[in-house]
Design goal:
This protein is α+β, with helices and mostly antiparallel strands. It is 35% helix and 17% strand. It has two domains: 242 residues, Fructose-1,6-Bisphosphatase, subunit A, domain 1 (Fructose-1,6-Bisphosphatase, Chain A, domain 1, 2-Layer Sandwich); 128 residues, 3-Layer(aba) Sandwich (D-Maltodextrin-Binding Protein, domain 2). It contains eleven helices and 14 strands. The longest helix is centred in the first third of the chain and has 28 residues. The structure holds 3'-phosphate-adenosine-5'-phosphate sulfate and magnesium ion (3 copies).
Amino acid sequence: MEDEKYSKELDVAVRVVHLACFLCQRVQEGLVSTNSDHVKSKDDDSPVTVADWSVQAMVSWMLSEYFGRQNVSIVAEEDVETLSKADSTDLLDAVVSTVNECLAEAPRFGLKRPDKTIGNSQVLEAISRCNSSGGPTGRHWALDPVDGTLGFVRGDQYAVALALIDNGRVVLGVLGCPNYPMRKEWLNIHHQHYRSMSKSLPSSHSWEEGCVMYASRGSDEAWMQPLIRGDEKFEWPNFAKLIRVSSIDDPALATFCEPVEKTNSNHSFTAGLAHSVGLRKQPLRVHSMVKYAAIARGDAEIYMKFARAGYKEKIWDHAAGVLIVQEAGGVVTDAGGRPLDFSKGVYLEGLDRGIIACSGDALHDKIIGAIFASWDSSNL
Ligand SMILES: Nc1ncnc2c1ncn2[C@@H]1O[C@H](COP(=O)(O)OS(=O)(=O)O)[C@@H](OP(=O)(O)O)[C@H]1O
Ligand SMILES: [Mg+2]
Ligand SMILES: [Mg+2]
Ligand SMILES: [Mg+2]
């Protein structure tokens, strides 16, 4: 079985993503409560934080430890340019201490910890080692240390995404969603709002559930584990629950998700498509690959993303989520109905206009048909 071939990789990846979620939760709490200045802007004006670099460093360190540095190729989002600047010493110190605090907790997740503290140069090296450009042959990990960084800094939804690509095909997908809410209706509501509400609740349970999902190619199964809270006494192995896509195929009852920011996806185009296929509900606008998570868990039926012309989608923004949705019974293609191609390097080369993920063929066919029709008429 193909899924057994990668069982060690899956086991390590799941544990590492749990540890990464733990790290992110700590950093997010600090960011939201202290308004720390450790949020930087990248060249494209998107944010990057201590958590993005720290998760990338920690995952890189762990994968090298378990599989051997020379065997591990990682394609990931962040680089060390900002961190290496002379005026970034505070930022680098914050990353190094976050990585070390996180690694110190590794045994609680059944992972090894380093014998001694990791220094600045080792952290920088771990981050910059993730500069593989992937490609059609060999094994490559695709890592988005924090997906939806904008959601993360807003105290809202974000994800940690790790996938393994072997000879151009995604074979493992692991997705951590630390703020996934207890009730699907709450996906639509700003997380901080619930944080403040939950403070007044008597129970120790907060509003969010949090989960790590995973799937192996060809297994026809996707799994979900509850997140382990930092303050809980923790025992590994964590239990896993099988997840499955929704069985709703009537557009009138279906929920569709899309990015929050209209600069990331054309909201008016998707509104037109939604109308033409008979979707009635308001779109569920959620940051990050949590949208794929919602489809895989059966909390929504459709995810559409149409980036502006010229924007090239990156493999780490989709690999884990796509595999999990597919193994949970869903369908994911580009807007022309073709599968996404993870074999061409960092980008999803050849992507036709946008990405459509659905819980099943019936809804998917309708959306693809509507795209075809609207494209035809717009070209008349
Ligand atoms: N201009 C533009 N167009 C399309 N997509 C872009 C664009 N800029 C960024 N990105 C990528 O989108 C990732 C966030 O996607 P989301 O679906 O979470 O978007 S949103 O925050 O809900 O609007 C985000 O991932 P992270 O950087 O990991 O947060 C980006 O890779
Ligand atoms: Mg991303
Ligand atoms: Mg990211
Ligand atoms: Mg980013």
